[in-house]
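>> Question from a student workshop board

For tomorrow's exercise we were told to take the sequence and the ligand below, predict the bound structure, and bring the output to class. My setup keeps failing. Could a helper post the expected result so I can at least see what it should look like? The ligand is zinc ion.
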Amino acid sequence: MVFKILIAVVACVVIVRLGLFVIRALATPAPSPDEGELRRVNLKYQCTVCGAQVRMTKAGEDLPPPPRHCMEDMDLIPTME
Ligand SMILES: [Zn+2]
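>> Workshop helper replied:
Here is what the output should look like for this input. Compare the format with yours to find the bug.
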């Protein structure tokens, strides 16, 4: 009887440890690129489905792939600078 309780306690501790390990792994944010690797951009995109507009101010490249909205690629709107 005592042996069974001991096994249950050990199993409980192992499960909690495993759970915490998984949660910590998920909570760790992905490494973001250095500030120096980002360029200032001024791009405006519009969703072709619902018309929502988005402005992109920083990107890793001059013309990054368009973001998606409503499961579709957004259209790049020419902006005057
Ligand atoms: Zn949309």
